[in-house]
Amino acid sequence: MVRYRRNLQPGATYFFTVTLRDRRSSLLVDRIDLVRTAFRMTLRRRPLQVDAVVILPEHLHAIWTLPPDDADYPARWRAIKSRFVRELEAAGDDVPRTGSGECLVWQRRFWEHTIRDETDFANHVDYIHYNPVRHGLVSSVADWPYSSFHRFVERGDLPSDWANEPDDDAMGGCGEPQ
Fold this sequence. Notes:
Layout: E1 13-19, H1 27-30, H2 32-45, E2 49-55, E3 59-65, H3 73-90, E4 111-114, H4 118-134, H5 149-155, H6 168-172
Antiparallel strand pairs: 1-3, 1-4, 2-3
């Protein structure tokens, strides 16, 4: 089995991409209520700061800042994924499994990147907020309901018409690998 090296730094800020196995699925937005429940219940037990997030049909991106004495983001993702599956089952949704019982909802791994500085942070926040447009889900960032973009607008950090005419170079240097 391949051993993945994770950069586990207490108190660090990380960008994540977490994906469903079925890349044609729309499960995450179809069951956004269960995604929110899984996040809420996990973060109640293992707090952290969610700096930015976007939920798309079959994947999500997030930026988290961990508490100063904590580096265990893998356990949080494991808990969120597991809780989401349990909530699906409790709601009576079909949860595909292998013959041995392994759940086939999520990809086993996730992509993570340690945020290096304020510019890297800002670039990844922009990437997260622009992602629904990039994937052709909406024509304006403000039209996607499952995004922290709306929180940024409410706080006055971004105008509501942000990126209506995006600079492609500004969106290209971050996010999941091509």
